[in-house]
Amino acid sequence: MAESQPPLRIGFVPEHFSTPIHFAQKHFGLTATLKSFPSGSGHMITALRSGEIDVAIGLTEAWVAGLGKEDTPGDGGYRIVGNYVKTPLCWAISTGAKRPEIDSVSALKGAKIGISRFGSGSYVMGYVLANQQGWLSTSAPSSAAEPPYSEFAVLHDFARLRAAVNDGAADFFMWEHFTSKRYYDSGEIRRVGEIYTPWPSWHIVASTSLLGQGGPDQKTDPRLPDALAKLDQGIAYFDQHHDEAVQYISTHLDYSEADAREWLKTVEFAPKTVGVDLGVVQNCVGILRKAGVLVEGKGMQPEEMLAKGLGA
Fold this sequence. Notes:
Elements: E1 9-12, H1 19-28, E2 33-36, H2 41-50, E3 55-59, H3 60-68, E4 78-85, E5 90-96, E6 112-115, H4 121-133, E7 151-154, H5 158-167, E8 172-176, H6 177-185, E9 189-196, E10 202-207, H7 208-211, H8 223-240, H9 242-252, H10 257-264, H11 278-290, H12 302-305
Parallel strand pairs: 1-2, 1-3, 6-7, 6-8
Antiparallel strand pairs: 3-10, 4-10, 5-8, 5-9
Helix pairs in contact: 1-8, 3-11, 9-10
């Protein structure tokens, strides 16, 4: 019985995008244990595979890259079960406050890029940026191509990334615009440019142990659709209570009230979380292959990345 089972453990990034999760728990009885991952989606992939969490809400490109890599372990550990944010993510490109030599995006070719960890959104988008800028070698297979950066400095979280571009451990990094803006305003870091994800920015994944996809007699854990339904209610509440959202974001998270209100103008959450548009995943895979993150003919295919039987 679902009632006798422990609550699901849901991983999330403690940023403004997490506000509907808070509302789902506060107002609609979401009984999950929420686990914060300031280090982002790449860390949540590790946690899903180790059994530390059951469900995670994070960046589309990280989930797709994590399943599409040719060295993905076992059954991948998770599947994409739902959509969360329909709008693209604006990744701000940042450098240190006193790095005058880095005066444009073009100056970043061959530089040291700071990332939270390999497989994270900050890592994947580094290749998407390089592809957009024409820095990738087209004369060799993507798996053998020369990296577009001199070093990938693994720095785990946003605070260490900010420190690294000021002490020289990294030349630049990419992180969400509004999360970065406070530190532009304070003068701690400097904005070089921006890049938007060419796909809806956030999706929901669940551990394969919840999905019952190993045989005809296995069923999806009933706690999962229940949690997604509560999350739908949290999103609907968010859409109807922007003032409460701003109050929460500006007092519990690292944003000013003005920035929270500006962010609200740019974001659209999915009204129904269950189900994933295969076309979105196919598009993401195609771009990641072009960018050299994934290799054509290797790794999991888009259809295999999606959970089966959860509805659409």
